[in-house]
Specification:
Number of strands: 4
Oligomer: single chain
Helix content: 25-40%
Largest sheet: 4 strands, mixed
Strand order of the largest sheet: 1-4-2-3
Number of helices: 2
């Protein structure tokens, strides 16, 4: 097997909100429904669809070690063109992207 480069992206826009929740949406809202989560990363959730599991897992990794009272409300919008179930790690891309977005929102330009 030879290594190959592909031009596919996983993109997340993130902004702080004044609410005590995380609002997750997708640019293709007809296919991928959004969901609202409580801030506490230990909170158990029923997920409306699979992509939300990966966004939540990434968020938990990004804010690991934060005291729940210090977490910020967030608006997250997901987009991307990494094929699902094609062996290209679309779920991993979404987890990493979500973790980086959550960390950036909480750490700002420190890192």
């Amino acid at each position: 097997m030879l290594p190959a480069a592909i031009e596919k992206d996983c993109l997340i826009a993130v902004a702080e909100n004044a609410l005590d929740v995380i609002v997750v949406g997708h640019v293709d809202e007809k296919t991928y429904k959004g969901q609202v989560f409580k801030l506490d990363p230990q909170e158990k959730h029923e997920f409306a669809n699979n992509y939300l599991k990966y966004v939540w897992a990434g968020h938990r990794a990004g804010v690991k070690g934060y005291i729940p009272e210090n977490l910020k409300g967030m608006e997250i919008l997901v987009s991307g063109n990494v094929p699902i179930a094609a062996g290209l790690s679309s779920s991993s891309a979404l987890c990493v992207c979500s973790a980086m977005a959550s960390l950036h929102l909480h750490e700002g330009d420190k890192g």
